[in-house]
Specification:
By secondary structure, the chain is an alpha+beta fold. It is built from 25 helices and 23 strands. Among the domains are: 120-226, Chitinase A, domain 3 (Roll), CATH 3.10.50.40; 230-337, Chitinase A, domain 3; 389-463, no CATH class; 516-614, Chitinase A, domain 3, CATH 3.10.50.
Length: 658
Amino acid sequence: MKKLFVLLTGLLLTTLNYAQDNDPVVLKINGENIYGSEFWYIYSKNNPNPSTKPADLDAYMELFINYKLKVREAEALGYDTIPKLKKELFSYRKQLAMPYLIDKDKNEALIKEAYDRIKNEVRASHILVRVNPGSTPEDTLKAYQRAMDLRARIIGGEDFSTVAKGIGGSDDPSAKQNGGDLGYFTALQMVYPFEDAAFKLNVGEVSMPVRTRFGYHIIQVNDKRPSKGRIKVAHIMVISNDKMSSDDQEANQKKINEIYELVEKGEDFGELAKKYSDDKSSAMTGGILPEFGAGSKQRMVPQFEDAAFTLTKDGDFTKPIKTVFGYHIIKRIELNPVPPYEEMYRELKLKVEKDVRAQSTKEAFINKLKKDYNFVDNGGQYLTTFAESMGENFDPTKWRGLEGKLDPNAVMFSFADQQHTVADIENYIKNIAGTGTGIETIVFLKENYNIHVNAVIMDYEDSKLESKYPEFNSLVKEYRDGILVFEIMQDEVWRKASEDTTGIKKYYEDHKSEFTYPVRYNGELYKCKDQSTAKQVYNMVKSDTLSYGKIQEIVNENSALNVVVKTQTFNSETTEAFKKGKKIRKFKTGLNKVFAYNGEYYVFKVKEVQPPREREFTEAKGLVTAAYQNLLEENWIKSLRSKYKIEIMKDALYSIGQ
């Protein structure tokens, strides 16, 4: 929730930090200047077509002041010193700093590489031998040797799929079903080392073991083809899987075929998806799925993707197809070829910077920093003495240190205004005691010395980001203010309201009339697929000889789509089917006339009409709490406006944006 709040309140955050001579002061809070550039940026960010009418500027200024007051109060109360909030900001800052701590030239090359690959697709199979990133050298070697043995069997003529499925084959559970076949993919859809290896292999070629965070992969490229672009589709899904009984699977196959017949007859695909699709997340939008294909993180199972791309024009739909999830009818909404590089650049840049491939730019970046900061490394002349003091097979838990064998103040490496001494390196090694047990001394020493040097240089550069990049400084401040406001709102409004049971109950007693139920109806509501079905249901209900369950069973004998019945208490204002234009339908006790809503027909048998009434406290508690929170916030803002001196420079305010 906190992240969401930060994003939402980002519309009211300080994101510009400059004050030029021609940048007028539009607001002062306790004498602190707030400039027109900041106000206008936030105002225009929150309003795509910002009005410069005085009345509109005045109205937004009030919201702006409220937010600024919350930030000032949080600072005055020391929220910016709370450890958990500082830790949270540190985490956000770390993410925001990433684009500034890479080699931009190499990053640009990676973006171009990703685009060139997105124009093509690779179909590959793999065998996975799992090995954890923190595994011992012995376990890692065993995994590598096992991967090489599996590769040797394939090179020797055994079928890749058979080896993947077989005993001692792939550790990827899906291999049992797909033989390791991953279908077609393109850039940014696999972890980078896997992608890189697959794109560099020729069709039919089998890779050497490729290491990723999952383990070692043996990759075989089965095909390469130009990308088909990105496609947007809608689908109707009926769940069917091996965990279901054969009767249920058969019934669901019959159901999807019935739905397909309706699609063929020209019924609205989106409405059918809303009524019948078991994919509830997409059913609400008429079955529409996120765009997938070239460069998209969204991937579909091969059967679904292959079927979607066979559709030749927008509006075409497939016959029911089967995937591991069930049955699907797929309708093509839109097919887009791979856009030009310029159009995809920003999207690719964001993805590359978040992807593991961005790590490959760090070494180049560190080398650049070393040059810029005049890095001098004297470590070579001292590492031999370190190694001698450690013994042939170094065990850090038993190391007593250099014991005076080197001058502790001797400089091991230096850059910019930094000097790191023998004593610094000695302490560093002592602090990582235990991580190098059993490793050859000189290997352990060189590896960890280089890690330390690179980390020190990167930390130094990281500490300079705010001063080197004003836009970064502003962005960090934006997140900082959002975190502070969220936390103080928790204390002053949200938590206070939820804990003040006396205040909430008093608010309820003082505002009972504001918390009422509208007319409600307890009864049976039948939703029918067409008018003739509704007439049939109406007559059956009218006979008063059958239960609602029996009526549904009889009417749905030939199709499960004919009628759906709900028995409950229906709120007249929130039940969609009760809407009649801008009005709400009214019903009487007993059987009401058939009515239509959005192309469907309804039969409604009302057992009880419940007139409007005030809600009991237990029924209205959620609504009352929300209203009480609003009251607390209003009162708090009033107190802040009294506490802080606020000056609005109207002439300056009205002049901005012109």
